[in-house]
Design a protein that fits this description.
By secondary structure, the chain is mainly alpha-helical. It is about 70% helix and about 0% strand. It is built from 11 helices and no strands. Helix 5 packs antiparallel against helix 9 and helix 5 crosses helix 11.
Length: about 190
């Protein structure tokens, strides 16, 4: 799961969303230095990653990409799954994707002082290029994958995975739909216990 799914699965608490969003830039047990809602978001992010990586449906999706993209096949599938979430957003929320994105960007700006340095550096691009909306179209997705290529020093040409996305589009979408129902339930249960 990538940015959009992590935000969605955090529920409506703004600080849990912030913690979840910046969790990748927080290593080890340093999360304990944050406030309880941020800790909850960080731990939820880690739980989502663990659940996703081990899930047989996600692994099936990822397997189609593994031969060409190796270790990065999981990163690509995270982005593909965000595409299907964005594309089908109305099935998951009564609030539009545009309103959700704007509310989250506003959330980041209002809580800027709580953000980690890597998130502060990324935030202007996230907002100006409207990444959360970009997931919904193949053109936007291509741009995101191209940007990921630069962040990984073009190790595997992730932007080329649009070919596989088109080739297996129906299969990927069906797998996402089944998987997302399970992870939604898992996260609701996990949030209640964190």
């Amino acid at each position: 799961m990538n940015f959009l799914a992590h935000i969605y699965l955090s529920g409506e608490n703004e600080l849990i969303q912030i913690g979840n969003f910046m969790a990748d830039s927080i290593r080890g047990k340093s999360y304990t230095l944050y406030s309880p809602p941020l800790i909850k978001g960080i731990l939820l992010h880690r739980e989502i990653d663990t659940f996703t990586d081990a899930h047989p449906i996600f692994r099936k999706s990822k397997h189609r990409l593994h031969e060409k993209y190796g270790h990065y096949s999981g990163v690509i599938m995270d982005i593909f799954y965000d595409h299907f979430l964005a594309k089908n957003w109305a099935n998951y929320s009564s609030i539009s994707l545009e309103q959700t994105a704007e509310a989250f960007y506003d959330n980041l700006q209002r809580h800027y002082d709580l953000l980690t340095e890597p998130v502060k550096k990324m935030m202007p691009y996230l907002i100006s290029q409207n990444w959360l909306i970009s997931y919904s179209t193949l053109e936007g997705l291509s741009l995101i994958l191209y940007q990921m290529d630069h962040r990984t020093k073009k190790r595997v040409a992730m932007h080329e995975s649009i070919v596989e996305l088109n080739q297996f589009y129906a299969e990927f979408e069906s797998e996402f739909t089944a998987f997302f129902e399970e992870i939604k339930i898992h996260c609701q249960e996990k949030l209640a216990t964190l």
